[in-house]
Amino acid sequence: MPPATLHDPDRYMADLRQILSQGRKRIGILIGAGAPAAIRVSADSPVASDDRPLIPDVAGLTNEVINALSEEDRSHINVLKNEIQGNSNIEAILTRIRKLAQAIGTSVVHGLDGRSYEKLALDICAEIGKHVGPSLPAGTNPYTKLVSWIAGTQREHSVEIFTPNYDLLVEEALERARIAYFDGFSGSRSPFFDPPSISTNEFPTRWTRVWKLHGSLGWKMHENTVIRTGQREDTELIFPDHLKYDQVTRMPYSALFERLRQFLTTPDTLLICTGFSFRDSHICAVMEESLAANSHTAVLAFQFARIENEKSAVTIAESRPNLSVYARDEAVIGGVTGRWQPAESARDDMGNIRQTYWGAPASSEPPEFTLGNFASLAEFLALTQAQQMSSPLPVPHPDDKELSEPHEK
Q1: Using one digit for the tens of pLDDT, what is the confidence trace for 373-396?
Q2: Of 144, 172, 152, 179, which Cα lies nearest the Cα of 38?
Q3: Are residues 177 and 293 in the same domain?
Q4: Do 162 and 285 lie in a common domain?
Q5: Domain range for residue 286?
Q6: Diameter of the chain measured on Cα atoms
Q7: What is the Cα gyration radius of the chain?
Q8: pLDDT tens profile 221-231
């Protein structure tokens, strides 16, 4: 029987720490729906608390949106949920409704015609807007720590943030820190979406790029153009699916997904995933195709759950060795699944920082890898700028393959 594979988190975090602090590699961050849930607020006021998430994850959002609809609408949705294969979350439901709205016209399916399904889709988007619309709380939080890391290093390439989330938390954190960013819109009074600018790299490298893959609060149609209003009440261009009603509304999404593909097929690229479940078929398709085409891209998926509950990410990682999955208890690195096992005694250069990615959730539980939590990952990123983490490693970094090679014991 071959020896069990063990992955040493000290080794991989030392490599990642050095890459992040150097500012030479092209780095992107994919922020999924689980990230905003890392911010906990009081039920009565948007301040730090352990009460509830600032914005619920997809499962929580699904429940809250459906419960806010009328009883009649809920009955129609329950019928549609039975027809949806796989995970019937609010995004899958909205996709199904929009397909029916476009396909059936005046015909009636489950008691509704095409126009009625259009109205149901708009009602769902309005409810989504209410639940993903909270502002970023005052003070330090995971998003402010993330942008602190972005701004803290002089870089050869802009950091690119990709997100399917509709909220405005990234934008608020960047603006609060006075960090310039570009999101594909041009203008000041009614900024309009400019597809040709998505593919260019002509902006200063200190500008962060923010790509809203599924649309955003504040986007709307105006005179046959997609504009950004900044108003949270504008929810008509929330599109979790790839089905678009016409060429005008299709353009932002196709251009943004092409940017993701372009990023991943560029050599010497690192994409860090946080709060992302790997259940979005369109994002995963682009990721798999790009990883197959470009072996010089690395994707690090920091997953919140244990490895047995991260099957969607693991399936891709097992066939694409340049995607690594870092779960609580185990990791898939270089296509090989192994249990996390730190060295019995930390190296001198790692002793002070192991606690930033390795710890026990409770005193009675064994320690585990913690960076699957967006709050912990943001803290880790921010600390790459701190003085106690800025000293060079005692041995030179051999090459970036360290991030994808398994370690057997």
Answers
A1: 999 999 999 988 764 444 444 333
A2: 144
A3: yes
A4: yes
A5: 6-43+137-218+246-394
A6: 71
A7: 22
A8: 888 888 999 88
